[in-house]
Write a structure and sequence with these properties.
It holds the Pfam family Glyco_trans_1_3. This is Glycosyltransferase. InterPro entries: MJ1255-like (IPR005262). The structure is a single chain. Helix content is 35%, strand content 19%. The radius of gyration is 20 Å and the shape is globular. The protein is of the alpha/beta class. Strands 11-12-10-9-13-14-15 form a seven-stranded mixed beta sheet, with helices on both faces. Strands 3-2-1-6-7-8 form a six-stranded parallel beta sheet, with helices on both faces. Strand 4 (63-64) and strand 5 (67-68) form a beta hairpin.
Length: 346
């Protein structure tokens, strides 16, 4: 069996899911080629698990000071190049296409009538979720952006639907707590804004991962270059995490049993929904501006109990290898069976 796996690379969560799926698919004897789009090749890092991967321009969004910049997003994307890439992608050697919300592979599969399944957080929006009802807005966009024959959604709760648990890596480092050490990952925020938020709290040490080349220490703010391994080490020992509201990172934080203070990216419906769901489930606090009173209240909280998610990657790889012979409903029921969840209040 040979698969082409398309990954939307705008956010690191999509890439992380592919990192988890790659060895699980290999264990099933499945040959996989990877295609990434939505990010410049020079901005991709720690890509060794994907071998000789391909990169296309795809579609992405632009951000300015923590908000979606709609004009730049419109002008920096090229529909002409997208169509060219879709038409040029030859799928004849592949038995199946997997799209993690990646448009080039999904549309090429649709045009060439190749079987295509989607595995992504976005496909959970087909079902009712707590919060502002963003699914009604997102679903037409999801169907247009990356059309698939079957979409497998992932979320922190099943919400009585065929939604699977998060698809994340096991934490490779022992979970400890270094009091006062806060991990910060706010890639969509202006660096000076982050600095102004963190400067008043000099009784804490902030490890801020951002797009720089070398480490920089500024009193109690330690700026660190992007590194998957370094980030996971900091995640394992930190006292808490401050981050934007991407699904993948929040899932890792819950799995590690770390408290989370999160800022959804303004104008990004998925992150707005994620923030609402986290608040509804009592799993995180949400902020728009980092204020002293909220920070100290959050920082004083004890670490929550880790959430023991099952090995979703292995279950999905076996399901794919068997020809997707069971329904998504049955697969979801099996995977959630041993996960301890608080009841959802409507």
């Amino acid at each position: 069996m040979k698969i082409l796996y398309g990954v939307q690379a705008t956010g690191n969560g999509h890439i992380t899911r592919a990192r988890v799926m790659a060895p699980a698919l290999a264990e099933e004897g499945i040959e996989v080629d990877f295609l990434f789009s939505g990010r410049s090749p020079d901005k991709l890092f720690n890509m060794e698990p994907f071998g000789e991967y391909q990169v296309r321009r795809g579609l992405t969004f632009s951000v300015s000071d923590g908000k979606i910049d709609r004009w730049r997003s419109l002008t920096q994307n090229s529909l002409i190049q997208l169509v060219r890439d879709i038409r040029a992608l030859d799928l004849q050697d592949y038995d199946l296409i997997i799209s993690d919300f990646e448009p080039v592979t999904a549309w090429a599969a649709k045009l060439q009538k190749k079987p295509c399944i989607g595995i992504a957080h976005q496909y959970a929006f087909r079902y009712p979720l707590p919060g502002p009802g963003i699914g009604r807005v997102m679903m037409p966009m999801i169907r247009f952006f990356a059309p698939v024959q079957q979409g497998i959604g992932l979320h922190w709760h099943h919400f009585d639907g065929p939604i699977l648990p998060p698809l994340i890596e096991a934490q490779p480092y022992p979970i400890t707590v270094e009091p006062g050490m806060i991990l910060v990952y706010l890639p969509f925020e202006n660096r000076e804004q982050i600095r102004q938020w963190l400067l008043p709290f000099n009784d804490y040490e902030f490890h801020v991962y951002c797009d720089i080349d070398t480490p920089e220490d500024e009193a109690h703010i330690l700026w660190r270059p992007l590194s998957r391994d370094g980030f996971r080490q900091a995640q394992a020992c930190c006292d808490g995490v401050i981050a934007n509201c991407g699904f993948g990172l929040a899932s890792e934080v819950l799995q590690a049993g770390k408290k989370l203070l999160t800022k959804p990216l303004t104008g990004q419906p998925e992150q707005v929904s994620n923030a609402a769901v986290l608040e509804h489930l009592g799993l995180a606090e949400v902020f728009a501006e980092l204020e002293e009173r909220q920070f100290y209240r959050w920082a004083a909280q004890p670490s929550p109990e880790p959430v023991a998610y099952p090995d979703v990657a292995r279950a999905l790889a076996r399901w794919i290898h068997s020809g997707c012979d069971r329904s998504a409903e049955l697969l979801a029921r099996e995977l959630w069976r041993d996960v301890l969840l608080e009841p959802v209040i409507a």
